[in-house]
Design brief:
The protein is of the alpha/beta class. 25% of the residues lie in helices and 22% in strands. The chain has helices at residues 2-11, 18-26, 30-41, 50-60, 94-113, 173-176, 239-249, 256-260, 290-302, 331-334, 365-371, 380-390, 449-453; strands spanning 15-16, 47-48, 79-83, 134-146, 153-159, 162-168, 184-190, 199-205, 223-227, 262-267, 309-312, 341-343, 348-352, 355-359, 419-422, 428-433, 436-441, 462-467, 473-477, 484-487. Helix 2 (18-26) packs parallel to helix 4. The two termini are 44 Å apart. Bound molecules: fe (ii) ion (2 copies).
């Protein structure tokens, strides 16, 4: 029922808050109620909020049952649009489960591509043999190779009907953006005339982000601080830099007025350093017990002003299953953290003051950077642009990012966010892509020997403070033992 309702709201271009959905599910007629909510919501707001459901339930209740009112449920400080993680379906073998995952990815991404004027008359791949002239297909990239001498691209695309090998000649527009394994693309092809000639790709189209008709912004300045990769428990945790950041947040640094406008803090994973994450990690640890690391995280987060609400997603160093999407922190860890800390899955999409944020730790950089020519950890936002064109955070299966076999592909980027934040690269980046603000939110860990070995030079102790009224960014640079503010990219 839950999935069904989410799909129903999505088909009407509405994003339903998780607490609102919860409430709808408790009603005697969830579908009727959802229909009434969509009818009454109009086209002004893309959100269905907790308050809207409470009001609609009160309107629909028979007069005799209107009192007493249901006990109020405290809504969270954000509107949760979707958590990437969903509970695995029981009784599925791994093959069947991965089959469902990829079918879900294909269904969502091909729906985004269908109906584009460039892809008129899309046909199933197995029909292509019977086509003449130009034709269009949508498929998942199963294989990409280069021809040995001329470096043309040989692309194998697959849909439910079958698979086909296509040729994208070197130097053509279609061959310019590298095809990545397991992404979903639409292509216009010139069908090969002779039996043994490959059809040639004339143009390639990706789902890409869509910009909302009216920008989602707050009416007055309201700021969010984006952080990542605290790595609490590591010997390299930057305690002094963290202390100056804490002072800044309390208004004891430059621009106390700006600090006072920060209402939320978002942390994009690797909250603690964990144990056994990489070879010989114990040499780098100041705290060798993972629960103790979270206890120290709790102390560090209590240093921030208590009025701030803190939203955290886990990363690959955290104590949750590493397969993505990752669930939020387990209850025993969650309960050890302060009450203003809200743990949700990696990735998650949520709205802060109506501005839609997708937070993803960024493990897939480890697969995408080697696969994209010219990509590097120093410029993670370039890779994030590619994620947005694919509308997928971690498409590649079988690399360094383990993918969880869930029935719904929670790594698809849907809806298009206003802000995409990642971490994991331990660098700092601000950029824009088609109206989406891209942030790679630095780290609070100095360079470790392991990173030296992997040629990663971190840009630590930076925080991106975003004004939700206009999405401008102020960088809080806490390196060199003092706080320096910079505006813009
Ligand atoms: Fe990290
Ligand atoms: Fe990480």
């Amino acid at each position: 029922m839950r999935e069904h309702l989410v799909a129903y709201f999505e088909s009407h271009r509405k994003l339903v808050e998780s607490s609102a959905l919860q409430l709808i599910l408790t009603s005697p007629q969830p579908l009727d109620l959802s229909r009434a909510l969509i009818d009454s919501a109009g086209t002004e707001s893309p959100f269905v909020t907790h308050a809207m459901v409470v009001e609609m339930m009160a309107q629909r209740a028979p007069a005799s049952s209107r009192a007493p009112a249901p006990a109020p449920v405290a809504p969270p400080p954000y509107a949760l649009v979707s958590e990437g993680y969903s509970t695995p379906a029981a009784g599925r073998g791994p093959l069947e489960a991965y089959g469902e995952l990829f079918a879900s990815r294909f269904a969502t991404l091909s729906r985004m591509l269908r109906g584009r004027p460039e892809l008129a008359n899309v046909r199933p791949i197995h029909d292509l043999a019977r086509a003449e002239g130009r034709a269009a297909v949508i498929g998942m990239v199963r294989d990409v190779r280069q021809t040995p001498e001329k470096h043309h691209i040989l692309l194998t695309l697959e849909d439910a009907s079958g698979s086909i090998e296509l040729l994208a000649p070197r130097g053509t527009e279609a061959a310019r953006t590298p095809f990545l394994p397991d992404e979903v693309v639409g292509v216009v092809v010139q069908v090969g005339r002779e039996r043994d000639r490959l059809s040639r790709v004339l143009s390639a189209h990706r789902p890409d982000v869509t910009t909302p008709r009216t920008p989602r912004r707050t009416a007055t300045p309201e700021r969010v601080a984006f952080l990542s990769d605290l790595h609490i428990g590591s010997k390299s945790f930057l305690a002094e830099e963290w202390a100056s950041f804490v002072e800044f947040l309390h208004g004891r640094g430059p621009d106390p007025a700006l600090a006072a406008e920060i209402r939320q803090v978002v942390i994009a994973g690797d909250l603690v350093d964990g144990i056994g994450i990489y070879p010989n990690q114990e040499r780098d640890l100041a705290i060798g017990d993972v629960l103790e690391q979270y206890a120290e995280l709790a102390r560090r987060l209590r240093e921030l002003p208590a009025r701030m609400e803190i939203v955290v997603v886990p990363g690959n160093h955290d104590a949750v299953c590493p397969a993505e999407p990752q669930p939020g922190l387990p209850p025993e860890i969650r309960s050890s953290l302060p009450e203003n800390v809200h743990s949700i899955s990696n990735p998650s999409t949520f709205a802060l003051g109506g501005v839609v944020v997708t937070a993803y730790h960024g493990r897939s950089f480890d697969d995408l950077i080697p696969a994209i020519p010219g990509a590097s950890y120093a410029r993670p936002t370039e890779v994030m642009k590619r994620m947005l064109t694919m509308r997928h955070l971690a498409p590649m299966y079988g690399g360094r990012t383990p993918l969880a076999p869930l029935a719904r592909d929670g790594l698809v980027i849907d809806p298009s966010p206003d802000i995409l934040v990642t971490g994991h690269a331990h660098t700092y980046g601000i950029d824009q892509y088609r109206g989406v603000l891209l942030l790679n939110a630095s780290t609070w860990q100095a360079e470790t020997d392991y990173q030296k070995m992997r040629n990663i030079s971190p840009v630590p102790a930076h925080c991106a403070v975003v004004d939700l009224s206009d999405l401008t960014v102020t960088t809080v640079d806490c390196t060199e033992g003092r706080v320096v503010l910079r505006t813009g990219a």
